[in-house]
Amino acid sequence: MNLQIDHKSPIPLHLQAEMLLRELIKAPEYIEGKLLPNEVELAKRLAISRTTLRLAINKLVYEELLVRKKGVGTRVVTSKFSSKSKNWLSFSQEMKNRGIEVKNFELHVSWVIPDSNVQHFFDIKEGQKVLKLERLRGKIDDPFVYFISYFHPRVGLTGEEDFKRPLYEILEREYHIVADLSQEEINAKAANKFIADKLEIELGEPILSRKRFVFDQSGRPIEYNLGYYRADSFTYTVESRRDY
């Protein structure tokens, strides 16, 4: 594609750059995930300043047509991933049904003394350790969610389980515990450094934060789960039906 700015045109340079970018990102290679030329190179090709180019790029980022990834570059936004609240039993299965292959980028298991929120939810003694499971998940080359789960000691998990398998399948088949009820709290917040590094976004960028409290068929707590989702890659859908 011939990228040229008309410096004699009355149209402002940043608007011309924006129009060129809108055409550029229609190219198949960019739709398929190729990174855009870096700002220094692109500004040089267009014979404009980086500040002028950044105005154009920022507009497309704001419109969610482009996304910047820290330390990687700028690329075209792919379709957002979507999860429905009623499908909480299996994230992996839901993504599979949508034709999305889920990858575990990180998986950590440890025994920890939980904070007071987890302690009170489980109604356990102060200082009692619980199993903590952390997973960074996403599609093949794009992590978009970080999960942290804490499990009540009563459940019986040892930490030696194959946590690449669906979690609630492990609980039901190996420990005869059925996850029956999920209560959730959802809010938007700014990413701290830990989450920003995990999700490959900038510090302070918006994320979707979800707390999930899971109970067995007897109403006993079994899991305290935290999920941190990239806002530019994920939509969380809640469905409600009217009671008559």
Descriptive account of the structure:
By secondary structure, this protein is of the alpha+beta class. Helix content is 27%, strand content 32%. The chain is built from eight helices and ten strands. The chain has helices at 13-24, 28-31, 39-46, 50-62, 91-97, 116-122, 167-175, 193-199, and strands at 66-69, 73-76, 81-84, 103-112, 130-139, 142-151, 179-190, 206-216, 221-230, 234-237. The strands form three sheets. The protein has a six-stranded antiparallel β-sheet with strand order 4-5-6-9-8-7. A hairpin with a 4-residue loop joins strand 8 and strand 9 (221-230). Helix 1 (13-24) packs across helix 4. The longest helix has 13 residues, at 50-62. The model has no long low-confidence stretch (mean pLDDT 86).
In brief:
The chain is of the alpha+beta class and 244 residues long. Helices cover 27% and strands 32% of the residues.
What secondary-structure arrangement, pairings included, does this model have?
Elements: H1 13-24, H2 28-31, H3 39-46, H4 50-62, E1 66-69, E2 73-76, E3 81-84, H5 91-97, E4 103-112, H6 116-122, E5 130-139, E6 142-151, H7 167-175, E7 179-190, H8 193-199, E8 206-216, E9 221-230, E10 234-237
Parallel strand pairs: 3-10
Antiparallel strand pairs: 1-2, 4-5, 5-6, 6-9, 7-8, 8-9
Helix pairs in contact: 1-4, 3-4
Strand and helix order: HHHHEEEHEHEEHEHEEE
Largest sheet: 6 strands, antiparallel
Q: Give the CA-CA distance, first to last residue.
A: 59 Å
Taking Cα atoms only, what radius of gyration do you get, to the nearest Å?
22 Å
Question: Which bin fits the share of residues in helices?
Answer: 25-40%
Overall pLDDT level: 86
Helix/strand/pairing category: alpha+beta
Supply the number of helical segments: 8
Q: Shape, please?
A: elongated
Low-confidence stretches: none
Instruction: Note the beta-strand portion.
Output: 25-35%
Number of strands: 10
* Lateral strand order in the biggest sheet: 4-5-6-9-8-7
